[in-house]
Design goal:
It is a single chain. Helices cover about 35% and strands about 20% of the residues. The chain has about 550 residues and is of the alpha/beta class. The strands form 5 sheets. Strands 1, 2, 6, 7, 8, 9 and 16 form a 7-stranded mixed sheet that branches. A hairpin with a 6-residue loop joins strand 7 (about 160-165) and strand 8. Helix 4 (about 80-100) packs across helix 11. Bound molecules: flavin-adenine dinucleotide. Flavin-adenine dinucleotide binds near residues 41, 46, 47, 51 and 213.
Length: about 550
């Protein structure tokens, strides 16, 4: 028998959500934080714009609430939106106190006030940022603070495989006891026992061929929670960013919307402009319209990319306004001042996830979910820019308060069953994993991407069912590896996205289908909620319920 790790709190994920939770818990609480790769790798590090909060006296809580609700097109939970917005200023102040180097209003005049930008959907300037690399500054500060804490152990290169749950004696309530975790260094699966477990594993945009997200975004937490018995909600709402650089070495390099804002034109590969045909605002139309127009043209002509051209601007203008983008493009052989650059839309943000209450509690006792993996009700059918980091900070903080209050009355689980490897061998054909990985991401892009239809979704569902069976067999016979675990989770999340998209018989927010191109306003908009049901073979199958009430607020 191996030594089993034992902690008060197990936090799976080391982004803004996971690290905020770790730092907000009392300093006498023993905490393990897992990162499946290096501690900094995750969506948080790549965030560019900033964090939204009401920080200017001309702005107001009501205005931030209204903007968020408008963006979410009828599916935001008003109580959750108010909670997040009201707690925003305190969350940002905590980061300032932590030393995050946010950009000041006027560096030369040594102003103490912070510079705020305005982004799409916001009526006011309310986005605090650290130049154009807010995520890097945030993640670095959080990691430094965590490393300085004696009560927090960081486990890099440790990927959680599955949650360990049990029914409470005398009750049918499911309770989380910890997780099985693969140490990628030793190849051994270890047991982590904990009074409280939190999933802070980020989004699932890697399910698509093109994404702005790093490789970590494989929806692991959503898939683990689902397998353990949690519902998932609103998985059809994936946000696509219109322009990522199309280049094999720059698979997730975002080209900011500001390039279009400053006069960049979108062109077909033959040099013809096309945006005017889709919207009178052309390149300045909202993000989802631009992404849809590019997708339409690419699918119609079979192009693998379109072009973005700002070469009519002087080189010093481009260098001054877009230093990072200009430099990166030059490194890859494109001089933006001389030529148009190839771009594709890319999956950017997962609005759906595991439903939680205001304290981050999930359907399973002692299991919390925070950050992009959660579906709190803040974003509804479309996330407003810079509200996601806000969500990470606010709900990680309320989860910390809730966990701290429950620690004294929650016992440590006893010894748990070891991971059983007696029936498996090393894989004989790694190609199965890499082939299925590519196939999945390609058909998700083609059939379940920016523009959907019943026919496309049915095709995708058929394929994903075959893949799931194949991966399940593979998983049952061979020793687990990082790639296999991620693929297993991606396939699961893909199925949840397809099924959710299939259920929504309307176009709303980020979900657009050719069969129902309008929003169905004949009834009150409702969330898409899938509920897992165990089959006789022990597999988990979705049963669908829509419009289910949100979970109640925790009493403490
Ligand atoms: C290019 C880009 C720009 C963005 N810009 C902004 C912005 O300006 N403002 C804004 O509000 N939002 C922005 N976002 C979105 C925002 O960055 C994310 O929503 C947010 O950072 C998510 O934080 P998180 O802590 O939930 O997850 P992440 O930061 O993605 O962290 C996930 C963590 O989970 C770990 N993990 C995952 N699976 C496992 C597993 N099985 N076992 C162990 N560990 C695991 C990973 O290793 C990682 O540590 C942007 C996103 C991208 C990609």
């Amino acid at each position: 028998m191996h030594l089993q790790h034992q902690y008060d709190g197990l936090i799976i994920g080391s982004g803004a959500a996971g690290l905020t939770l770790a730092l907000r818990l009392p300093q006498d609480v023993r905490i393990a934080v897992l990162a499946k790769g290096p501690v900094k790798e995750g969506n948080t590090y790549y965030a560019q714009g900033g964090i939204s909060a009401v920080l200017d006296h001309k702005d107001s809580i009501e205005s931030h609430i209204t903007d968020t609700m408008n963006a979410g097109v009828g599916l935001c939970d008003p109580r959750v939106v108010r909670f997040a917005v009201e707690h925003g200023p305190e969350a940002v102040q905590w980061l300032i106190d932590l030393g995050v180097p946010f950009t000041r209003r006027d560096e030369e005049k040594h102003q103490t006030e912070f510079h705020l930008t305005r982004e799409g959907g916001h009526q006011h300037r309310r986005v605090i940022h650290a130049a154009d690399s807010t995520g890097k500054a945030l993640q670095t500060s959080l990691v430094d603070a965590v490393r300085a804490r004696d009560n927090i152990d960081l486990f890099e290169q440790h990927i959680a495989v599955d949650l360990i749950t049990a029914e409470r004696p005398g009750s049918r309530d499911n309770c989380c006891l910890g997780a099985y975790v693969l140490d990628r260094g030793t190849g051994r699966v270890e047991v982590f026992r904990a009074r409280f477990t939190t999933l802070a594993t980020g989004g699932a945009s890697k399910v698509y061929l093109y994404t702005s997200n790093p490789d970590t975004s494989t929806g692991d937490g959503i898939a683990m929670a689902w397998r353990a018995g949690c519902r998932v909600a609103n998985m059809e709402f994936n946000q696509f960013h219109p322009t990522c650089l199309y280049h094999p070495q720059a698979k997730s390099f975002l080209i900011s919307e500001a390039v279009r804002g400053e006069g960049g034109k979108l062109l077909l590969p033959n040099g013809k402009p096309f945006m005017q045909r889709f919207d009178p605002r052309a390149e300045l139309a909202p993000r989802d319209i631009v992404a849809r127009a590019i997708d339409h043209e690419m699918k119609r002509h079979g192009y693998d990319h379109v072009l973005l051209d700002i070469s009519h601007k002087p080189v010093d203008f481009i260098e001054k306004h877009f230093p990072t983008i200009y430099r990166r493009c030059l490194e890859l052989g494109f001089d933006m001042a001389e030529q148009a650059i190839p771009v594709v839309p890319a999956a950017h943000y997962t609005c759906g996830g595991v439903p939680t209450d205001l304290s981050g509690r999930s359907d399973i006792d002692n299991l919390y979910v925070v950050g992009e993996s959660a579906c709190t009700g803040l974003h509804g059918a479309n996330r407003m820019a810079s509200n996601s980091l806000l969500e990470c900070l606010v709900f990680a903080t309320s989860a910390a308060t809730d966990i701290a209050a429950r620690l004294a009355t929650t016992g440590m689980p006893g010894e748990l069953p070891e991971w059983d490897e007696s029936q498996v061998t090393d894989s004989d054909e790694e190609v199965v994993v890499s082939h299925n990985w590519d196939e999945l991401r390609r058909f998700m892009w083609d059939y379940v991407g920016i523009v959907r239809s019943n026919k496309r979704l049915e095709r995708a569902l058929h394929r994903v069912e075959l893949l799931r069976q194949e991966i399940q067999d593979y998983y049952g016979n061979f020793r687990v590896t990082n790639d296999l675990l991620e693929l297993r989770n991606l396939v699961q999340v893909a199925e949840l996205i397809i099924r959710s998209a299939h259920i929504r018989k309307e176009s709303r927010g980020l979900h657009y289908t050719l069969d129902y191109p309008q929003a169905d306003d004949s009834q009150v908009a409702s969330d898409t909620i899938l509920e897992p049901q165990k089959t006789d073979q022990g597999n988990v199958q979705p049963a669908t319920i829509t419009g289910v009430e949100k979970l109640g607020v925790a009493d403490n």
